[in-house]
Protein backbone atom coordinates (compact mmCIF):
# COMPACT_ATOMS: atom_id res chain seq x y z
CA UNK A 1 0.00 0.00 0.00
CA UNK A 2 1.35 3.39 -0.99
CA UNK A 3 1.13 6.38 1.32
CA UNK A 4 -1.33 8.15 -0.97
CA UNK A 5 -3.53 5.02 -1.06
CA UNK A 6 -4.02 4.99 2.72
CA UNK A 7 -7.79 5.34 3.05
CA UNK A 8 -9.09 8.63 4.46
CA UNK A 9 -12.82 7.90 4.27
CA UNK A 10 -13.84 9.33 7.67
CA UNK A 11 -15.18 6.01 8.93
CA UNK A 12 -18.02 7.02 11.28
CA UNK A 13 -17.53 3.86 13.38
CA UNK A 14 -14.18 5.28 14.54
CA UNK A 15 -15.96 8.28 16.08
CA UNK A 16 -13.30 10.74 14.90
CA UNK A 17 -10.39 8.55 16.02
CA UNK A 18 -7.61 7.75 13.58
CA UNK A 19 -5.78 4.48 13.06
CA UNK A 20 -2.10 3.93 12.42
CA UNK A 21 -1.34 2.21 9.14
CA UNK A 22 1.91 1.13 7.57
CA UNK A 23 2.42 2.33 4.01
CA UNK A 24 5.23 2.92 1.56
CA UNK A 25 6.30 6.51 0.84
CA UNK A 26 7.76 8.03 -2.37
CA UNK A 27 11.19 6.55 -1.61
CA UNK A 28 9.85 3.05 -1.03
CA UNK A 29 10.27 3.39 2.75
CA UNK A 30 7.65 2.16 5.18
CA UNK A 31 6.16 4.85 7.42
CA UNK A 32 3.23 5.11 9.79
CA UNK A 33 0.30 7.09 8.38
CA UNK A 34 -2.76 8.08 10.42
CA UNK A 35 -5.92 7.04 8.63
CA UNK A 36 -9.42 8.35 9.27
CA UNK A 37 -10.73 4.93 8.31
CA UNK A 38 -11.72 2.89 5.31
CA UNK A 39 -15.18 2.61 3.79
CA UNK A 40 -14.71 -1.17 3.66
CA UNK A 41 -14.24 -1.28 7.40
CA UNK A 42 -17.23 0.95 7.98
CA UNK A 43 -19.39 -1.40 5.90
CA UNK A 44 -18.39 -4.56 7.76
CA UNK A 45 -18.42 -2.96 11.22
CA UNK A 46 -21.88 -1.48 10.76
CA UNK A 47 -23.05 -4.82 9.35
CA UNK A 48 -22.05 -6.44 12.64
CA UNK A 49 -23.46 -3.62 14.79
CA UNK A 50 -26.76 -3.65 12.89
CA UNK A 51 -26.93 -7.42 13.10
CA UNK A 52 -26.96 -7.25 16.90
CA UNK A 53 -29.51 -4.42 16.77
CA UNK A 54 -31.80 -6.48 14.54
CA UNK A 55 -31.50 -9.49 16.83
CA UNK A 56 -32.25 -7.29 19.85
CA UNK A 57 -35.36 -5.88 18.18
CA UNK A 58 -36.57 -9.34 17.23
CA UNK A 59 -36.00 -10.49 20.79
CA UNK A 60 -37.87 -7.46 22.15
CA UNK A 61 -40.92 -8.41 20.11
CA UNK A 62 -40.68 -11.98 21.35
CA UNK A 63 -40.54 -10.71 24.92
CA UNK A 64 -43.63 -8.59 24.35
CA UNK A 65 -45.46 -11.60 22.92
CA UNK A 66 -44.44 -13.64 25.93
CA UNK A 67 -42.29 -15.94 23.83
CA UNK A 68 -38.92 -15.04 25.28
CA UNK A 69 -37.46 -13.76 28.52
CA UNK A 70 -35.89 -10.29 28.78
CA UNK A 71 -32.53 -12.04 29.03
CA UNK A 72 -32.60 -12.69 25.30
CA UNK A 73 -33.14 -9.02 24.56
CA UNK A 74 -30.41 -7.79 26.92
CA UNK A 75 -27.94 -10.33 25.57
CA UNK A 76 -28.17 -9.06 22.00
CA UNK A 77 -28.49 -5.43 23.04
CA UNK A 78 -25.09 -5.76 24.71
CA UNK A 79 -23.54 -7.51 21.70
CA UNK A 80 -23.39 -10.92 23.31
CA UNK A 81 -24.61 -14.16 21.79
CA UNK A 82 -25.33 -17.50 23.49
CA UNK A 83 -21.72 -18.56 23.08
CA UNK A 84 -20.06 -15.44 24.49
CA UNK A 85 -22.65 -14.99 27.24
CA UNK A 86 -22.18 -18.57 28.38
CA UNK A 87 -18.41 -18.08 28.50
CA UNK A 88 -18.68 -14.79 30.35
CA UNK A 89 -21.09 -16.07 32.97
CA UNK A 90 -19.50 -19.49 33.29
CA UNK A 91 -22.81 -21.20 32.50
CA UNK A 92 -23.40 -23.82 29.83
CA UNK A 93 -24.94 -22.81 26.53
CA UNK A 94 -27.94 -25.05 27.14
CA UNK A 95 -28.55 -23.27 30.43
CA UNK A 96 -28.50 -19.86 28.79
CA UNK A 97 -30.89 -21.09 26.10
CA UNK A 98 -33.16 -22.55 28.75
CA UNK A 99 -33.26 -19.20 30.53
CA UNK A 100 -34.74 -17.66 27.39
CA UNK A 101 -38.02 -19.33 28.36
CA UNK A 102 -40.09 -16.77 30.28
CA UNK A 103 -41.43 -19.33 32.76
CA UNK A 104 -37.98 -20.62 33.67
CA UNK A 105 -36.45 -17.15 33.73
CA UNK A 106 -39.08 -15.90 36.18
CA UNK A 107 -38.12 -18.62 38.63
CA UNK A 108 -34.36 -18.08 38.44
CA UNK A 109 -32.68 -17.61 41.79
CA UNK A 110 -30.96 -14.39 42.74
CA UNK A 111 -27.47 -15.82 42.35
CA UNK A 112 -27.87 -16.68 38.67
CA UNK A 113 -29.62 -13.40 37.96
CA UNK A 114 -26.75 -11.54 39.59
CA UNK A 115 -24.29 -13.45 37.44
CA UNK A 116 -26.05 -12.33 34.27
CA UNK A 117 -26.39 -8.78 35.54
CA UNK A 118 -22.69 -8.46 36.40
CA UNK A 119 -21.60 -9.98 33.09
CA UNK A 120 -23.72 -7.46 31.22
CA UNK A 121 -22.97 -4.53 33.51
CA UNK A 122 -26.63 -3.85 34.39
CA UNK A 123 -28.73 -4.16 37.52
CA UNK A 124 -30.95 -7.16 38.24
CA UNK A 125 -34.03 -4.92 37.94
CA UNK A 126 -32.90 -3.86 34.47
CA UNK A 127 -32.29 -7.45 33.53
CA UNK A 128 -35.83 -8.42 34.49
CA UNK A 129 -37.47 -5.67 32.45
CA UNK A 130 -37.32 -4.39 28.88
CA UNK A 131 -37.40 -0.81 27.62
CA UNK B 1 28.66 -11.27 17.24
CA UNK B 2 28.04 -8.80 14.49
CA UNK B 3 28.50 -5.42 16.17
CA UNK B 4 26.70 -3.42 13.53
CA UNK B 5 23.59 -5.47 14.05
CA UNK B 6 23.50 -5.24 17.82
CA UNK B 7 21.31 -2.88 19.72
CA UNK B 8 22.36 -1.63 23.10
CA UNK B 9 19.93 -1.84 25.95
CA UNK B 10 20.32 -0.10 29.28
CA UNK B 11 19.38 -2.48 32.04
CA UNK B 12 20.27 -0.07 34.80
CA UNK B 13 17.18 2.03 35.32
CA UNK B 14 14.52 -0.45 36.39
CA UNK B 15 12.04 0.73 37.58
CA UNK B 16 11.89 3.86 35.54
CA UNK B 17 10.81 7.37 36.29
CA UNK B 18 9.43 10.10 34.18
CA UNK B 19 6.95 10.50 31.45
CA UNK B 20 5.90 7.75 29.14
CA UNK B 21 6.27 8.41 25.43
CA UNK B 22 3.08 7.50 23.59
CA UNK B 23 3.37 6.21 20.04
CA UNK B 24 0.53 5.40 17.68
CA UNK B 25 0.67 1.75 16.62
CA UNK B 26 -1.21 -0.48 14.22
CA UNK B 27 -1.67 -3.36 16.62
CA UNK B 28 -2.11 -3.36 20.38
CA UNK B 29 0.24 -6.10 21.54
CA UNK B 30 3.19 -5.23 19.30
CA UNK B 31 2.60 -1.56 20.10
CA UNK B 32 2.67 -2.18 23.84
CA UNK B 33 5.80 -4.33 23.73
CA UNK B 34 7.59 -1.87 21.49
CA UNK B 35 6.86 1.09 23.73
CA UNK B 36 7.48 -0.76 27.01
CA UNK B 37 10.88 -1.93 25.79
CA UNK B 38 11.76 1.46 24.39
CA UNK B 39 10.79 3.00 27.71
CA UNK B 40 13.39 0.73 29.28
CA UNK B 41 16.11 1.64 26.84
CA UNK B 42 15.73 -1.08 24.22
CA UNK B 43 14.58 0.73 21.10
CA UNK B 44 12.51 -1.78 19.14
CA UNK B 45 10.01 -0.53 16.59
CA UNK B 46 6.50 -1.91 16.41
CA UNK B 47 7.16 -3.90 13.19
CA UNK B 48 10.32 -5.30 14.80
CA UNK B 49 8.35 -6.45 17.85
CA UNK B 50 5.78 -8.00 15.53
CA UNK B 51 8.28 -9.67 13.21
CA UNK B 52 10.70 -10.91 15.86
CA UNK B 53 7.90 -12.67 17.70
CA UNK B 54 6.77 -14.51 14.54
CA UNK B 55 3.29 -13.18 15.18
CA UNK B 56 2.43 -13.08 11.49
CA UNK B 57 0.26 -16.01 10.64
CA UNK B 58 -2.97 -17.13 9.07
CA UNK B 59 -5.33 -19.35 11.01
CA UNK B 60 -8.72 -20.69 10.03
CA UNK B 61 -10.30 -23.25 12.34
CA UNK B 62 -13.80 -24.32 11.21
CA UNK B 63 -14.55 -26.19 14.44
CA UNK B 64 -13.86 -23.30 16.80
CA UNK B 65 -16.52 -20.61 16.63
CA UNK B 66 -16.03 -16.96 17.44
CA UNK B 67 -19.21 -14.85 17.42
CA UNK B 68 -20.83 -17.83 15.73
CA UNK B 69 -18.34 -18.02 12.87
CA UNK B 70 -15.25 -20.20 12.33
CA UNK B 71 -12.21 -18.70 13.99
CA UNK B 72 -10.26 -16.75 11.38
CA UNK B 73 -7.15 -14.85 12.40
CA UNK B 74 -4.36 -13.11 10.58
CA UNK B 75 -1.86 -13.45 13.41
CA UNK B 76 -0.79 -15.67 16.29
CA UNK B 77 -2.89 -15.98 19.46
CA UNK B 78 -2.89 -13.11 21.96
CA UNK B 79 0.07 -13.25 24.29
CA UNK B 80 2.44 -14.62 21.64
CA UNK B 81 4.33 -11.37 21.19
CA UNK B 82 4.92 -10.89 24.91
CA UNK B 83 6.08 -14.49 25.23
CA UNK B 84 8.15 -14.81 22.07
CA UNK B 85 10.15 -11.60 22.53
CA UNK B 86 11.58 -13.11 25.70
CA UNK B 87 13.10 -15.87 23.59
CA UNK B 88 14.33 -13.87 20.65
CA UNK B 89 15.54 -10.74 22.47
CA UNK B 90 16.42 -12.25 25.83
CA UNK B 91 14.27 -9.78 27.77
CA UNK B 92 12.48 -11.04 30.85
CA UNK B 93 8.90 -10.03 31.52
CA UNK B 94 7.17 -10.28 34.87
CA UNK B 95 3.55 -11.36 34.44
CA UNK B 96 0.93 -11.21 37.17
CA UNK B 97 -2.64 -12.46 37.13
CA UNK B 98 -5.25 -12.15 39.86
CA UNK B 99 -8.32 -14.02 40.98
CA UNK B 100 -9.65 -11.09 42.96
CA UNK B 101 -10.37 -7.79 41.12
CA UNK B 102 -9.64 -5.70 44.22
CA UNK B 103 -6.22 -7.33 44.54
CA UNK B 104 -5.55 -6.66 40.89
CA UNK B 105 -6.38 -3.00 41.23
CA UNK B 106 -4.32 -2.61 44.42
CA UNK B 107 -1.32 -4.24 42.78
CA UNK B 108 -1.61 -1.99 39.74
CA UNK B 109 -1.70 1.08 41.99
CA UNK B 110 1.31 -0.20 43.89
CA UNK B 111 3.29 -0.67 40.67
CA UNK B 112 2.33 2.80 39.50
CA UNK B 113 3.47 4.22 42.83
CA UNK B 114 6.85 2.63 42.13
CA UNK B 115 6.67 4.75 38.98
CA UNK B 116 6.61 1.81 36.64
CA UNK B 117 4.88 1.70 33.28
CA UNK B 118 2.77 -1.44 33.23
CA UNK B 119 1.32 -3.44 30.35
CA UNK B 120 -2.24 -4.64 30.92
CA UNK B 121 -4.83 -6.78 29.18
CA UNK B 122 -8.52 -5.81 29.08
CA UNK B 123 -11.75 -6.22 27.13
CA UNK B 124 -12.49 -3.66 24.45
CA UNK B 125 -16.22 -3.69 25.21
CA UNK B 126 -15.83 -2.15 28.67
CA UNK B 127 -13.38 0.62 27.78
CA UNK B 128 -15.38 3.85 27.57
CA UNK B 129 -12.72 5.68 25.57
CA UNK B 130 -13.29 3.36 22.61
CA UNK B 131 -15.75 4.59 19.96
CA UNK B 132 -19.16 2.93 20.68
CA UNK B 133 -19.33 1.14 17.33
CA UNK B 134 -15.95 -0.48 17.91
CA UNK B 135 -16.85 -1.97 21.28
CA UNK B 136 -17.21 -5.72 20.83
CA UNK B 137 -16.50 -8.49 23.30
CA UNK B 138 -12.84 -8.92 22.51
CA UNK B 139 -10.98 -9.67 25.73
CA UNK B 140 -7.37 -9.60 24.57
CA UNK B 141 -6.75 -5.91 24.09
CA UNK B 142 -3.45 -4.53 25.40
CA UNK B 143 -2.41 -1.14 26.71
CA UNK B 144 0.23 0.56 28.85
CA UNK B 145 -0.84 2.18 32.10
CA UNK B 146 1.69 4.77 33.21
CA UNK B 147 0.03 6.81 35.93
CA UNK B 148 -3.00 7.63 38.00
CA UNK B 149 -4.68 10.94 38.76
CA UNK B 150 -7.39 10.77 41.42
CA UNK B 151 -9.55 7.89 40.25
CA UNK B 152 -8.45 7.94 36.64
CA UNK B 153 -5.68 5.95 35.07
CA UNK B 154 -3.38 7.52 32.51
CA UNK B 155 -3.23 5.09 29.63
CA UNK B 156 -1.13 4.84 26.53
CA UNK B 157 -3.34 2.72 24.29
CA UNK B 158 -1.23 2.03 21.21
CA UNK B 159 -4.17 2.04 18.82
CA UNK B 160 -5.31 5.47 20.01
CA UNK B 161 -3.71 8.54 18.53
CA UNK B 162 -3.15 10.21 21.89
CA UNK B 163 -2.88 9.04 25.51
CA UNK B 164 -6.28 8.48 27.13
CA UNK B 165 -7.81 8.32 30.60
CA UNK B 166 -10.04 5.68 32.11
CA UNK B 167 -11.93 5.61 35.40
CA UNK B 168 -10.77 2.94 37.84
CA UNK B 169 -14.17 1.23 38.01
CA UNK B 170 -14.34 0.91 34.23
CA UNK B 171 -10.81 -0.41 33.97
CA UNK B 172 -11.41 -2.93 36.73
CA UNK B 173 -14.48 -4.21 34.91
CA UNK B 174 -12.54 -4.44 31.63
CA UNK B 175 -9.62 -6.26 33.27
CA UNK B 176 -11.73 -8.88 34.98
CA UNK B 177 -14.25 -10.04 32.40
CA UNK B 178 -14.55 -13.77 31.92
CA UNK B 179 -14.72 -15.85 28.75
CA UNK B 180 -12.43 -16.52 25.81
CA UNK B 181 -8.98 -14.95 26.42
CA UNK B 182 -10.14 -13.81 29.87
CA UNK B 183 -7.50 -11.29 31.00
CA UNK B 184 -7.64 -12.23 34.72
CA UNK B 185 -6.29 -8.76 35.38
CA UNK B 186 -3.02 -9.54 33.57
CA UNK B 187 -0.26 -7.03 34.26
CA UNK B 188 3.24 -7.26 32.78
CA UNK B 189 6.46 -5.28 32.81
CA UNK B 190 10.13 -5.87 31.94
CA UNK B 191 12.29 -7.28 34.73
CA UNK B 192 15.47 -7.64 32.79
CA UNK B 193 16.72 -6.06 29.59
CA UNK B 194 19.91 -7.55 28.11
CA UNK B 195 22.82 -5.21 27.56
CA UNK B 196 23.20 -6.19 23.95
CA UNK B 197 20.94 -8.04 21.58
CA UNK B 198 22.25 -10.05 18.67
CA UNK B 199 19.77 -8.81 16.12
CA UNK B 200 21.06 -11.02 13.34
CA UNK B 201 20.39 -14.14 15.36
CA UNK B 202 17.00 -12.88 16.52
CA UNK B 203 15.90 -12.06 12.98
CA UNK B 204 17.17 -15.35 11.61
CA UNK B 205 15.27 -17.33 14.24
CA UNK B 206 12.06 -15.38 13.72
CA UNK B 207 12.14 -15.62 9.93
CA UNK B 208 12.71 -19.34 10.03
CA UNK B 209 9.81 -19.87 12.39
CA UNK B 210 7.38 -17.71 10.40
CA UNK B 211 8.13 -19.30 7.05
CA UNK B 212 7.86 -22.74 8.62
CA UNK B 213 4.48 -21.93 10.14
CA UNK B 214 3.16 -20.44 6.93
CA UNK B 215 4.39 -23.17 4.57
CA UNK B 216 5.05 -26.44 6.28
CA UNK B 217 2.52 -27.29 8.95
CA UNK B 218 0.59 -30.15 7.37
CA UNK B 219 -2.83 -29.10 8.64
CA UNK B 220 -5.38 -27.05 6.70
CA UNK B 221 -5.90 -24.72 9.65
CA UNK B 222 -2.57 -22.88 9.72
CA UNK B 223 -0.63 -20.95 7.10
CA UNK B 224 -1.06 -20.98 3.35
CA UNK B 225 -3.01 -24.25 3.53
CA UNK B 226 -5.58 -22.53 5.71
CA UNK B 227 -5.97 -19.67 3.22
CA UNK B 228 -6.58 -22.18 0.42
CA UNK B 229 -9.01 -24.08 2.60
CA UNK B 230 -10.97 -20.93 3.40
CA UNK B 231 -11.12 -20.07 -0.30
CA UNK B 232 -12.56 -23.51 -0.91
CA UNK B 233 -15.10 -23.05 1.85
CA UNK B 234 -16.22 -19.70 0.48
CA UNK B 235 -16.76 -21.34 -2.89
CA UNK B 236 -18.77 -24.11 -1.22
CA UNK B 237 -21.13 -21.58 0.40
CA UNK B 238 -22.59 -20.88 -3.03
CA UNK B 239 -22.90 -24.51 -3.98
CA UNK B 240 -24.62 -25.38 -0.72
CA UNK B 241 -27.16 -22.59 -1.14
CA UNK B 242 -26.40 -21.06 2.23
CA UNK B 243 -28.80 -18.45 3.59
CA UNK B 244 -27.66 -15.16 1.95
CA UNK B 245 -27.88 -13.35 5.27
CA UNK B 246 -25.51 -15.84 6.87
CA UNK B 247 -23.13 -15.61 3.90
CA UNK B 248 -23.05 -11.81 4.16
CA UNK B 249 -22.37 -11.91 7.90
CA UNK B 250 -19.72 -14.59 7.45
CA UNK B 251 -17.83 -12.67 4.77
CA UNK B 252 -18.27 -9.50 6.84
CA UNK B 253 -16.75 -11.33 9.79
CA UNK B 254 -13.70 -12.46 7.78
CA UNK B 255 -13.08 -8.93 6.55
CA UNK B 256 -13.68 -7.52 10.02
CA UNK B 257 -11.05 -9.79 11.52
CA UNK B 258 -8.69 -8.57 8.83
CA UNK B 259 -9.41 -4.87 9.07
CA UNK B 260 -10.59 -4.09 12.53
CA UNK B 261 -9.09 -6.31 15.14
CA UNK B 262 -6.26 -6.78 12.66
CA UNK B 263 -4.60 -3.78 11.15
CA UNK B 264 -5.66 -1.38 8.46
CA UNK B 265 -5.75 -3.42 5.31
CA UNK B 266 -3.81 -6.47 4.43
CA UNK B 267 -4.23 -7.90 7.91
CA UNK B 268 -0.74 -7.38 9.33
CA UNK B 269 1.00 -7.97 5.99
CA UNK B 270 2.15 -4.37 5.75
CA UNK B 271 3.46 -4.42 9.31
CA UNK B 272 5.41 -7.53 8.43
CA UNK B 273 6.70 -6.01 5.19
CA UNK B 274 7.90 -3.04 7.21
CA UNK B 275 9.70 -5.44 9.56
CA UNK B 276 11.41 -7.11 6.59
CA UNK B 277 12.51 -3.73 5.28
CA UNK B 278 13.97 -2.77 8.64
CA UNK B 279 15.69 -6.15 8.89
CA UNK B 280 17.13 -5.72 5.39
CA UNK B 281 18.62 -2.38 6.36
CA UNK B 282 19.96 -3.61 9.69
CA UNK B 283 21.64 -6.65 8.17
CA UNK B 284 22.40 -5.01 4.85
CA UNK B 285 20.71 -7.82 2.99
CA UNK B 286 19.14 -7.06 -0.40
CA UNK B 287 17.11 -10.24 -0.63
CA UNK B 288 15.24 -9.25 2.49
CA UNK B 289 14.13 -5.99 0.90
CA UNK B 290 13.00 -7.99 -2.09
CA UNK B 291 10.95 -10.15 0.27
CA UNK B 292 9.52 -6.99 1.82
CA UNK B 293 8.27 -5.89 -1.59
CA UNK B 294 6.63 -9.26 -2.27
CA UNK B 295 5.02 -9.07 1.17
CA UNK B 296 3.61 -5.64 0.29
CA UNK B 297 2.09 -7.12 -2.86
CA UNK B 298 0.53 -9.81 -0.72
CA UNK B 299 -0.93 -7.15 1.57
CA UNK B 300 -2.41 -5.43 -1.45
CA UNK B 301 -4.01 -8.72 -2.52
CA UNK B 302 -5.65 -8.92 0.91
CA UNK B 303 -6.89 -5.37 0.50
CA UNK B 304 -8.48 -6.34 -2.82
CA UNK B 305 -10.22 -9.21 -1.08
CA UNK B 306 -11.50 -6.88 1.65
CA UNK B 307 -12.80 -4.45 -0.95
CA UNK B 308 -14.69 -7.18 -2.79
CA UNK B 309 -15.88 -8.63 0.51
CA UNK B 310 -17.35 -5.31 1.64
CA UNK B 311 -19.14 -4.92 -1.69
CA UNK B 312 -20.54 -8.42 -1.26
CA UNK B 313 -21.84 -7.47 2.20
CA UNK B 314 -24.03 -4.72 0.84
CA UNK B 315 -27.61 -5.63 0.09
CA UNK B 316 -28.30 -6.17 -3.63
CA UNK B 317 -24.67 -6.89 -4.34
CA UNK B 318 -23.38 -7.87 -7.78
CA UNK B 319 -20.42 -9.76 -6.35
CA UNK B 320 -20.49 -13.55 -6.45
CA UNK B 321 -19.00 -15.81 -3.81
CA UNK B 322 -16.87 -17.44 -6.51
CA UNK B 323 -15.20 -14.07 -7.15
CA UNK B 324 -14.40 -13.79 -3.47
CA UNK B 325 -12.98 -17.28 -3.44
CA UNK B 326 -10.78 -16.37 -6.42
CA UNK B 327 -9.55 -13.24 -4.64
CA UNK B 328 -8.64 -15.27 -1.58
CA UNK B 329 -6.92 -17.86 -3.75
CA UNK B 330 -4.78 -15.03 -5.16
CA UNK B 331 -3.79 -14.12 -1.58
CA UNK B 332 -2.72 -17.73 -1.04
CA UNK B 333 -0.56 -17.61 -4.18
CA UNK B 334 1.10 -14.33 -3.19
CA UNK B 335 1.69 -15.52 0.33
CA UNK B 336 3.27 -18.76 -0.87
CA UNK B 337 5.57 -16.76 -3.12
CA UNK B 338 6.59 -14.40 -0.32
CA UNK B 339 7.35 -17.12 2.21
CA UNK B 340 9.16 -19.36 -0.25
CA UNK B 341 11.41 -16.41 -0.96
CA UNK B 342 11.90 -15.85 2.77
CA UNK B 343 12.64 -19.50 3.37
CA UNK B 344 15.32 -19.42 0.67
CA UNK B 345 17.22 -16.60 2.36
CA UNK B 346 20.33 -17.73 4.22
CA UNK B 347 21.40 -15.36 6.93
Q: Your description of this structure?
A:
The complex is a heterodimer of chains A (131) and B (347). Chain A has helices spanning 39-64, 70-77, 82-89, 93-98, 102-106, 110-120, 124-128; strands at residues 19-24, 30-35. Chain A has 131 residues and is mainly alpha-helical. In chain A, strand 1 and strand 2 (30-35) form a beta hairpin. In chain A, helix 1 packs antiparallel against helix 2 (70-77). The longest helix of chain A is centred in the middle third of the chain and has 26 residues, at 39-64. The model of chain A has no long low-confidence stretch (mean pLDDT 94). Chain B is α+β, with helices and mostly antiparallel strands and 347 residues long. Chain B has two domains: 8-43 and 92-192, Cathepsin B, Chain A (Alpha-Beta Complex); 199-342, no CATH class. Chain B is built from eleven helices and ten strands. A six-stranded antiparallel β-sheet of chain B has the order 4-9-5-6-7-8, with helices on both faces. In chain B, strands 1-10 form a two-stranded antiparallel ribbon. In chain B, helix 4 (101-113) crosses helix 5 (168-175) and helix 10 (286-313) runs antiparallel to helix 11. Chain B is globular and about 60 Å long. Classes of the chains: A mainly alpha (131), B alpha+beta (347). Chains A and B meet through strand 1, strand 2, helix 1 and helix 3 of A and helix 8, helix 9 and helix 10 of B.
Please summarize what this structure is.
The complex is a heterodimer of chains A (131) and B (347). With 131 residues, chain A is mainly alpha-helical. Helices cover 53% and strands 9% of the residues of chain A.
Amino acid sequence: MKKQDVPQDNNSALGGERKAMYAVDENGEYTVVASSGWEVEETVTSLAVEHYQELAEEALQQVQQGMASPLRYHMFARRFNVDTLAQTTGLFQWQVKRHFKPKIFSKLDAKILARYATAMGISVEQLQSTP
Amino acid sequence: MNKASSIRGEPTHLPVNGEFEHRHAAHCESGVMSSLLRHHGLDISEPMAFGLSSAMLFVHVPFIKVEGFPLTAYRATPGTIIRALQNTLGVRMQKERFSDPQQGTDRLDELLEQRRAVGAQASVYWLPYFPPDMRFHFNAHNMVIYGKQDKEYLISDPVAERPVKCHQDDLEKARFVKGLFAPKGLLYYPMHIPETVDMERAIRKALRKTSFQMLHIPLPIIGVRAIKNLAKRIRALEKNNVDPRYARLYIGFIVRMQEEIGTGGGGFRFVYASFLQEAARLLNHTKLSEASEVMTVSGDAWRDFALLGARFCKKKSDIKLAELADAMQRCAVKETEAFKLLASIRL
